[in-house]
Amino acid sequence: MYDYQLEDKLQLRKRIAPEYVHVIHHGISFCAVGSDGVRITMESALTARDRVGVQDFVLLENFTSEAAFIENLRKRFKENLIYTYIGSVLVSVNPYKDLEIYTKNHMERYRGVNFYEVSPHIYAVADNSYRSMRTERRDQCILISGESGAGKTEASKKILQYYAITCPASDQVQTVKDRLLQSNPVLEAFGNAKTLRNDNSSRFGKYMDIQFDFKGAPVGGHILNYLLEKSRVVHQNHGERNFHIFYQLIEGGEEDLLRRLGLEKNPQQYQYLVKGNCPKVSSINDRSDWKVVRKALTVIGFNDDEVEELLNIIASVLHLGNIQFGGEDSGIAYITTDTQIKYLSRLISPLNLEQAASARDALSKAVYGRTFTWLVNKINDSLAFKDESYKNPSVIGLLDIYGFEVFQHNRFSTFCTCLTVVLSSEMAIKDAVMFHAVSQWEPVQYFNNKIICDLVEEKFKGIISILDEECLRPGDASDITFLEKLEDTVGGHAHLTTHKLADGKTRKVMGREEFRLLHYAGEVNYNVNGFLDKNNDLLFRNLKEVMCMSENTILTQCFDRVELKDNKRPETAATQFKNSLAKLMEILMSKEPSYVRCIKPNDAKQAGRFDEVLIRHQVKYLGLMENLRVRRAGFAYRRRYEIFLQRYKSLCPETWPTWEGKQVDGVSTLVKHLGYKPEEYKLGRSKIFIRFPKTLFATEDALETRKHSLGNSPTLCPSPAVMIQSWWKGILARRRAQRKRQAVDSIRRFIKGFIYRHKERCPENEYFLDYVRYSFLIKLRKNLPKTVLDKSWPTPPAALVEASELLRKMNMQNMVWRYCKKINPEWKHQLEQKMVASEIFKDKKDNYPQSVPKLFVGTRLNGEEINPKVLQSLGNEKMKYAVPVTKYDRKGYKARNRQLLLTSNSAFIVEEGKLKQRIDYASLKGISVSSLSDGVFVLHVPTEDNKQKGDVVLQSDHIIETLTKVAICADKIHSININQGSITFTVGHGKEGTIDFTSGSELLVAKAKNGHLSVTAPRLNSR
Ligand SMILES: Nc1ncnc2c1ncn2[C@@H]1O[C@H](COP(=O)(O)OP(=O)(O)O)[C@@H](O)[C@H]1O
Ligand SMILES: [Mg+2]
């Protein structure tokens, strides 16, 4: 037999790459090599494109192979499939081009749909968190990490948009949604900049809470900001820019505004904007961005005055940057730029040139940094959830962790950000490990980040403590003394080394001013240059004082006098960051986390380029292999019992179609039936865990085969509709089967009856005989003759011959009776005459049949056609019939036109007005006609009667009618002789005449040579 199923599979194989088989478990679609190398697709909703590689790394057979991991990423990336899961972690590769996957339709597709039912997407993560928050009433957070330019900020924006579009809303909520969305361009203007890696790189860490009310509508938000890269205000590397807002203001600001701020429309004029030598970027339109930001400020709730004050500060920073110092011989700096004096004259204190510049820059940084914090607070005010009556909104947090870039030489900021990443990946792994602990699996080996965290954070002995101590201690502390201190204190730590402590090989790749940390994912070198300064982040007291006196209300809020009174040393940058990070961790730990890991495919911001080296690097630093390994930790797949059972129950007779017992027992029965070996799976509290993808694939294969045998049902999980449908189908099938059984019985009885049909009635043949009788009667009823002339009658079965005959007669009588009942007197008279005609002529005279259908008329001549004299001489005698006739003379047979009149007593031959001859019926001896079709007849009269001149030879065109009338009137029905060949008649006085009849082509009446009257009658019948 031809295997259509195989054909199907082969067709599919041609369509999609051959080496993979796609398997979808409860909606999740993934692919793997099937045992027969044949590709099987299981869900038509997913397009072939969605099934490239595996959608979940967990299903990679070779899950420890980094090459296989990257190959899977590459394959999907090539098809623009930028999202892939590791369990519940979403890995995203920056496409560097607009993909059509963020439309409203896409949002709808992911809304309320189970995580695994659709192809991986950032919306799936967003929706999953939202639903968990709603159904489990547990706060959620989504942690987004990755290198700068990997797409973190884009991802967080996509999530925000998803909520803004898909969540329920009311009017009041709409403003919150708007503000949430509009806070982005403002924060990006002040906190983002073009770097070498990303034209719109966030230069601060952001954690944003979105608050939802009990209906699930977003009602508020809160932003925490971390570690703005303030140094960018005063210095940019080549090819990079300052924060966007500076360029936006200069390019987009109205003339009036710029004049008020004392700014020129040329960024090249400002020292703080020229360092990177890159004021313009093709991918950035500062002018239109300005409009967006300006509008967003209004939406968020800034009034015009506040905007002006804010921009005043931005402008002041630019002016500040343009202050130049000159060195006096004494070494004390003075300001050389006149125009700026009015802004800063009072700030000069006895500083040397370098110190003065540094103080200026420190001020700029402080002003910008604090303004940024103020801005965030202002946004928070506008996003704050104001409904007092509703105390505990549910929360989804979004963490866009500051880009962690590993450079050849990493500095202080990287060191700080690396902390974040270390902590967040630790959370992810802890999460996975916790899962295993809960489900009591065998212990999982994983790199414990705690050892690094301790190395960095620990009190007194940690790197941060050592750094702080160096910053605080009197004497000439420097970056180098810090490094030496490190070597002294933690030099022996397994995860730290320095140039001095390293072995020869490592030493070659380390600078003298570097220390190296061994993270779980690899080694990172940090250059200590600038660590102390950055950590100190000092601002001279008198500068602070001046700022406190500012008339700018924003600045007075940023520089609080209380700060001046506080003589305690401010916290160092690293400590501040460590503390805020600790706080953040606390926040995150109280929530259920989801993870998005962003990967940058190349350094050139190019679409379609997959730089394998760069990616391998990120896979390593994001700890993705570690993540996968822990996730797999022996088990590739886990699913809740009810879902597993629902999907595969058709594969086991005991569980199909429904399993009545406990779910876990059902699953256990099912997998035993499927032949799972004990080491291949485990049953947890609410889930089944399957160790190898191939086990699952085999199960999917079986399901696919089963589906075909089940009639290709699209789903094996019966919905109520399907159940009703199957019940009804069952009923119909049972009815059909019953009918079939009955039919078989009938046929069997029939055949038996047929065999016994000639036997006496017995149980074997009684059904058959009854059937035959019944069917004869039914057939008869349908085929009864409709008229008396129809003599057909069905042949009866032997048992019904007598009955049939009786029925036939009854039917005939019935028809006759009905016919007679319908008849009228006129017609009755007609028929009576016809009866007489029939009696006389039927089968005797040739032209009789032609006369049958012609009705007899009352008379052939009416009153006007008969001479009145004749009528007068008839006197009282009532005329019954009159017809024109031809009379042949007795001698010579001359033909004369006459009329024949019939009265009750006599027949008259009339010529014009004369009654030529009267024949009383009583004296009429007989009437002779031929058997042929002619109309000649002879009225025989007695010769002894003197009044009579002899027999009368007449001819009528209506011979049958005429003679019938004569026979009736004269009551001579039996006196009509029908003759063959010839008729003899008396001419009178004993003489006789003869008429000879022959058949010919036409009527001819003439005297023959032999003296006879010869009549040739046309042949009408075949006789
Ligand atoms: N999903 C995406 N689709 C299209 N382009 C993207 C996507 N994610 C990132 N990009 C591009 O990459 C750039 C850098 O992304 P961004 O989110 O700013 O990186 P990060 O925040 O990780 O530094 C964006 O400006 C955008 O051009
Ligand atoms: Mg960013």
Automatic annotation (TrEMBL):
Gene3D superfamilies, alphabetized: 1.10.10.820, 1.20.5.190, 1.20.58.530, 6.20.240.20, Kinesin motor domain (3.40.850.10), Myosin VI head, motor domain, U50 subdomain (1.20.120.720)
GO cellular component, one term: microvillus
GO terms (BP aspect): actin filament organization; actin filament-based movement; endocytosis
Subcellular location: Cell membrane; Cell projection; Cytoplasm, Cell cortex
Residues annotated as domain Myosin motor: 53-704
Record-linked SMART domains: MYSc
One MF term in the entry's GO annotations: actin filament binding
Alphabetical keyword list: Actin-binding, ATP-binding, Cell membrane, Cell projection, Cytoplasm, Membrane, Methylation, Motor protein, Myosin, Nucleotide-binding, Repeat
Residues that bind ATP: 146-153
Top-level taxon: Eukaryota
CDD domains: MYSc_Myo1
Region spans: Actin-binding: 581-603
TH1 domain segment(s): 845-1019
Family in the record: Belongs to the TRAFAC class myosin-kinesin ATPase superfamily. Myosin family.
Name of the molecule in the record: Myosin Ic, paralog b
Organism: Esox lucius
Source species taxonomy: Eukaryota, Metazoa, Chordata, Craniata, Vertebrata
